[in-house]
Amino acid sequence: MSFAQPDLARTFERIPPQNVDAERVCIGSVLIDREIMGTISEIVRASDFYVHAHETIFSALLALYERNEPLDRITLAEELKRRGALDRVGGPAYLGTLVNSVQTAASAAYYAKLVREKSTLRSLIHAGTEIVQTGFEAEEDVEGAIDRSEQMIFAIGQRQMGGDFSHVGSLMKPALDELEEYYYRRGELSGVTTGFPDIDAVTTGFKPGNFVIIAARPGMGKTSFALNMAMSAARAAGQPVAFFSLEMSNSELVLRLLSSTVRISMHDIRRGNIGDKDWGRIPKVMDELDTLPIFLDDSGGLSVSELRSRCRRLKATRGLGAVFIDYLQLLHPSSMQRQMNRNEEISEICRTLKVTAKDLGVPVIALAQLNRGVETRNEKRPMLADLRDSGSLEQEADFVAFLYREGYYNKEAADPELTEFIIAKHRNGPTGKVNLRFEAEYTLFQPYGDEANYPAP
């Protein structure tokens, strides 16, 4: 009789984890009690069986069960014969042995769990072997190798934890705890602050697991807005904030932070036109920035899987409160094995970022570029249809907002600094508009008086 995964035995010169008796009991239980298949099939898969014959037999039983046919020695033998596998698994005699090895199916679920546990241990050994091989392959990029290794282990852990329905009654206590927290924190934010009171009043802060998109055409101040938000989040929560800049260098980002904090224009900074008074303030501001848990990453050509891997490591070593990405369309997809069009690439990136937000339990705030079509029409306020490259940006996001400044297009605008923060999608709240002021010379966004304008929920 042949055994599954023989490479493991050859690699380590040891018999891999297995429980052949438990496998026999699982199959025998199904053959004496068809209904037990519903329970066992939720615990084990055919590939979990160590003995090849058992894997083949269980696969045939699953096919019969799904066709709503009887599960007994006769129907099983016919199905295996149809597949040309009856003699290979030991013939009708071995099927009879499986039936005779079980007196009752009462403990079938217990033995199924044993089979799955042994399969999980073999998967760990296999993953370890793959990770070792990956480490020896010189052509592999290190970040990609680490991410693939993490994914292999993570997938095994997710399978082991499993999943099931939750009765609504069992969810009442956690829901009540959450309601009480909201009740006693009335007026306080329940998520990560944006730093702008009028926006926070609408969002109540971005929540763990939120995938947030803030989009605009070039020149609207996307990067400045995200940096302002990142500083506010780091100050308020005291938790590390990751800021991925795929367009600007870390040094340029730090100069922008200094400009907005000291209120020295970027033009004057680059020219060295800094007065003695301002120069004297810079060390104090730098000391303040040094205390903020903001972590910048300006790696170019970053893939979304590499970004996720770096976020995981930051959370494991220092903690993590929020992730900012500038900007989404500059990320590369993880799947490079096949040719994908741009829509497919952006769809994969969006799905991965959404899963990352959920898995890490933090909001992921991604900047995005809008289509050039905005420039060709008279009404230049952005709409959801203007999101560039893919409808997945809108579908996957929990929150979508646009930055729009009329003064960018109309030099005679009444207030060239007035910037509209247009909330176009809000999964758990109202849409609408909040007015901000953009002081471009300082790369700084500010609240715009009492002119916030958004509808009631």
Q: For this structure, what is the CATH homologous superfamily of the largest domain?
A: P-loop containing nucleotide triphosphate hydrolases
**Low-confidence segments:** 451-457
H/E element sequence: HHHHHHHHHHEHEHHHEHEHEHEHEEE
Described by the principal axes of the CA atoms, the overall outline is: elongated
EC number: 5.6.2.3
GO molecular function: 5'-3' DNA helicase activity; ATP binding; ATP hydrolysis activity; DNA binding
Catalytic activity: ATP + H2O = ADP + phosphate + H(+)
Protein name: DNA 5'-3' helicase
Fold and architecture overview:
By secondary structure, the chain is α/β, with parallel strands linked by helices. The chain folds into 2 domains: 6-161, DNAb Helicase, Chain A (Orthogonal Bundle), CATH 1.10.860.10; 188-447, Rossmann fold (3-Layer(aba) Sandwich), CATH 3.40.50. The chain contains 18 helices and 9 strands. A 9-stranded mixed β-sheet has the order 3-2-4-5-1-6-7-8-9, sandwiched between helices. β7 and β8 (432-439) form a beta hairpin. It is elongated, with a radius of gyration of 29 Å. The termini are far apart. 36% of the residues are buried. Mean pLDDT is 80; it is low at 451-457.
Distinctive features:
single chain, 457 residues, alpha/beta, DNAb Helicase, Chain A, Rossmann fold, 2 domains, nine-stranded mixed beta sheet, 18 helices, disordered C terminus, DNA binding, ATP-binding, primosome, 5'-3' DNA helicase activity
Topology:
Elements: H1 6-12, H2 20-32, H3 36-40, H4 52-66, H5 73-82, H6 91-100, H7 108-136, H8 142-161, H9 172-184, H10 197-203, E1 211-216, H11 222-237, E2 241-245, H12 250-262, H13 266-271, H14 276-291, E3 294-297, H15 304-317, E4 322-326, H16 342-360, E5 364-369, H17 392-396, E6 399-404, H18 406-409, E7 418-426, E8 432-439, E9 444-447
Parallel strand pairs: 1-5, 1-6, 2-3, 2-4, 4-5
Antiparallel strand pairs: 6-7, 7-8, 8-9
Helix pairs in contact: 2-4, 2-6, 2-7, 4-5, 7-8, 8-15, 11-12, 12-14, 15-16
